[in-house]
Write a structure and sequence with these properties.
- The chain is an all-alpha fold.
- Helices cover 62% and strands 0% of the residues.
- The protein contains 3 helices and no strands.
């Protein structure tokens, strides 16, 4: 796993992920009880996770790199 998510991309993923996770947890009468809340929570969690580790599997498959520089020897 090499870094393929740049700094700005990570910040955007972190903010959007936290917002979705919070919305999913606070939407309705109880946390994550309806389909929309569950989907928002899962997507938010995935975005936060990829922001933290700096690696996105679909980016790797598609050869996308949004700013991480890999040292080439």
């Amino acid at each position: 796993m090499t870094c393929n998510v740049g700094k700005i991309d990570r910040m955007i993923r972190g903010v959007v992920g936290a917002a979705l996770l919070t919305w999913g947890a606070t939407n309705g009468t109880s946390a994550f009880t309806d389909t929309q809340s569950i989907i928002a929570g899962v997507v938010g969690g995935v975005l936060l996770f990829t922001a933290i580790i700096g690696w996105c599997p679909p980016y790797g498959l598609l050869g996308i790199n949004t700013g991480c520089h890999v040292k080439k020897d």
